[in-house]
């Protein structure tokens, strides 16, 4: 598909693709150039992200998973029996398995993910392992409004699960907006959410600048995806992965930096890059425990339990409603 139509009268899975053309065109035209990180997650990008999670430098996945395994019983107690779990950005489902193993009679699992294929593979595997569980995957962009199925008849409360510190992709205002919207969806239940912590900048830098170059490949895959899906002609060798930690903003930024003056064609448009021009592809905000609890409270949640690993790398919060 070279020139994708971008009308709204398309089936939902294609609307997501149409968004990529429209948002990349707009992102390359604005200054500074930027694009939302959700566009990383095509099939290749989701597979690259799974490899990032295995990297020795990328501590969040390993740390959160260990924290969940160690504290699963306490987490399950906060959530209570007969819950319906809604996971935002479900990916490959390793963390929900730990939670499902500890929960009393989980009734339904609703994984929401932008990467439809990844989502359905994981949902099928989960169905096979939890025959009693009503698994209802939704292929959707959870940063936009979406519909949930009517509450499960036998479930007592709806609880959100948002692991991995994906909340960090939002800016402060967007994070507050997202938390406020989920508080409406999850009324009477709560949210179990993983949040990466502010720490030694050297550790943060290493986590997004791995020596094997997987994070660089993940970042550059955005351009490869534009070539594959939109017929763009980005020369990947002429863009560099750049991921500094910005202490003042408490965030990692990811950019693609043009290695030289060049022109790129996309959907009949020509975009000029000078040497050193960047396309900003991601922010990954880090939080203090107290700062995150204050944000959650502002959004209408009651922060209750919080679990932190011994090295204070990562936190998991139970926010009641
Ligand atoms: C999926 C948003 C939590 O910010 O750490 C990993 C994405 N980007 N390496 C993160 C990511 C580069 C990740 N989140």
From TrEMBL:
Keyword Protein transport applies: no
InterPro entries from the UniProt entry: EgtD, EgtD_Methyltrsf_superfamily, MeTrfase_dom, MeTrfase_EgtD-like, SAM-dependent_MTases_sf
Keywords of the record: Methyltransferase, Transferase
Keyword Transferase included in the entry's annotation: yes
Gene Ontology biological process terms from the UniProt entry: methylation
Entries under Pfam families matching the protein: Methyltransf_33
Domain Histidine-specific methyltransferase SAM-dependent residues, every copy: 21-319
GO molecular function term, any single one: methyltransferase activity
Name the UniProt record assigns to this protein: Histidine-specific methyltransferase SAM-dependent domain-containing protein
Species this chain originates from: Methylibium petroleiphilum (strain ATCC BAA-1232 / LMG 22953 / PM1)
């Amino acid at each position: 598909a070279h020139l994708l139509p971008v009308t709204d009268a398309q089936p939902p899975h294609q609307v997501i693709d149409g968004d990529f053309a429209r948002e990349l065109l707009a992102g390359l035209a604005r200054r500074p150039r930027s694009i939302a990180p959700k566009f990383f997650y095509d099939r290749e990008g989701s597979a690259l992200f799974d490899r990032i999670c295995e990297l020795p430098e990328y501590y969040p996945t390993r740390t959160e998973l260990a924290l969940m395994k160690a504290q699963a019983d306490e987490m399950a107690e906060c959530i209570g029996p007969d819950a319906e779990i809604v996971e935002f950005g479900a990916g490959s489902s390793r963390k929900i398995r730990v939670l499902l193993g500890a929960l009393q009679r989980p009734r339904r699992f609703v994984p929401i993910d932008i990467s439809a294929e990844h989502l359905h593979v994981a949902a099928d595997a989960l169905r096979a392992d939890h025959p009693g569980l009503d698994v209802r995957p939704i292929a959707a962009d959870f940063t936009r409004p979406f519909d949930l199925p009517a509450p499960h008849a036998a479930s007592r409360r709806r609880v959100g699960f948002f692991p991995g510190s994906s909340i960090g992709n939002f800016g402060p205002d967007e994070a507050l907006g997202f938390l406020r919207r989920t508080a409406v969806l999850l009324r009477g239940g709560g949210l179990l959410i993983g949040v990466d912590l502010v720490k030694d900048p050297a550790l943060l830098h290493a986590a997004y600048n791995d020596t094997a170059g997987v994070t660089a490949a993940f970042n550059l895959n955005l351009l490869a995806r534009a070539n594959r899906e939109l017929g763009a002609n980005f020369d990947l060798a002429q863009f560099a992965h750049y991921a500094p930690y910005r202490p003042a903003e408490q965030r990692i930024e990811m950019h693609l930096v043009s290695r030289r003056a060049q022109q790129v064609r996309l959907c009949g448009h020509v975009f000029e890059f000078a040497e050193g021009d960047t396309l900003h592809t991601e922010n990954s905000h880090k939080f203090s425990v107290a700062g995150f609890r204050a944000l959650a409270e502002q959004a209408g949640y009651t922060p209750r339990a919080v679990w932190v690993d011994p090295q204070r790398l990562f936190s998991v919060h139970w926010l009641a409603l």
